Amino acid sequence: MRAALTPPLSQPYIEVPEGKPLGFAEFEPPWLLEVAEPSEVVRRMADKVAAMIVTSTYSDLDCALAERELRMECLRLLPEKMSLYDLVYTSRFRRLREQFRP
Length: 102
Prior knowledge:
The protein is mainly α. It has 4 helices and no strands. The chain has helices spanning 30-35, 38-54, 60-77, 82-100. The model has no long low-confidence stretch (mean pLDDT 78).
């Protein structure tokens, strides 16, 4: 059963200072990571890494660091699924890099 993904009343939005780019860890509000299923957290983070690779806003280093952070989070949340992570996401990110990062 899925947990409700609504923000607590005390923390509805994340304030971003003018001109400050969002870092990878700042994409999701903190309350979401507390209520979502582990697989949902990994999926959302993987989608964010894919978006980072596709857009030209982020450097190759930023993308590699985000991918490493995702791998570590998957290892922490779903250690028994690391072989599946390698099968799905490693090849996905490699293909996106080859396609969108010359």
